[in-house]
């Protein structure tokens, strides 16, 4: 009887988990030592949504089909939404597009279901009136809304104003991108923080501020959003901004499925995992990508909700879950090298190295690096053999190595 390694999610961590697990299983099969293990991926669609690119134009095209890749790699795909996990019974409740409810059993589970944007109920009107770019559907909806406004409504200050709520990574990239897509539009970033990009640190901040100023993006800091309606935004200091487009980018949380798995969670609802990416109270469960709070190094740094970390986390979690079933040694996760690449629209980009984000490049050259990441580096190979070969748990150096090689070629 075959064992089942089930992965929930087909994002970066989920796709690379499946490929990495299949790689180890294939290697042991060649050695004549492999057990019969079925690798199963559960996700709403057989596609990898390129979330790091959803701030760009043509959002509806920002996905990468993985159905053919899974089929060629011998990975089973179940289309549906995982709604509940029973760690005692080793079962997952899955709702399919046809309305059926499946019960999928597992021997090892990898939770790679990503994260979702948080919409605090304290902000009146947020649920009804604000857009976001957290999913393919929501980013496509925003783009359609903006084009419809420009095509059908007369020019007014409210029609011509876009307010981006949140001055973090996503908010900055979106606000910097919008002037190039929608000229003569007022772009305003609002955040309760006192500094732009608070989580990015002080080193890249001058480059970010200079770029936003060059692009004509207004920045309002120290102002909480209190309410949103069809015609604008009200701030905590009593100011109102008339705008028919408000985009919420202020914070995300791990998939709600983390609540179904016993064990401590952090403030982002991520599961605490050990260096094997296993959830200690549930020895048959691994968490990866945005669902995992994993230690990256010996300096006390933890993973971020980024594709840079998700890709490597996926490689390690898939390998270790398969190794656990094959009675093979596991590989501890470690990713000490971190590179922050922030797109600044027509003003270029800024690239910072390490957790202190020491600026390595900015402007046009950095923009070429960011384009290489978005348009090449984050895509898995289309060929199954190439994808499986690239899925080994090499721990950080594959991604960073390609990036460093590209930068050196530019220089």
Counted beta strands: 25
| CATH class membership of the largest domain | Alpha Beta
Mean pLDDT: 94
What count of structural domains? Answer: 2
Percent of residues in helices comes to 25-40%
Largest β-sheet summary: 6 strands, mixed
CATH fold field value of the largest domain: FAD/NAD(P)-binding domain
Uncertain residue ranges: none
Structural class determined from secondary elements: alpha/beta
CATH architecture of the largest domain: 3-Layer(bba) Sandwich
Q: Give the count of helical stretches.
A: 10
Give the DSSP E fraction (strand runs of 2 or more residues): 25-35%
Report the radius of gyration as a whole number of Å. 22 Å
Q: What is the fourth-level CATH superfamily of the largest domain?
A: FAD/NAD(P)-binding domain
- What global shape is seen? globular
Amino- and carboxy-terminal Cα gap: 55 Å
Strand order of the largest sheet: 5-2-1-9-21-20
GO molecular function, one term: NAD(P)H dehydrogenase (quinone) activity
Pfam family, one: Pyr_redox_2
Protein name: FAD/NAD(P)-binding domain-containing protein
Organism: Cercophora scortea
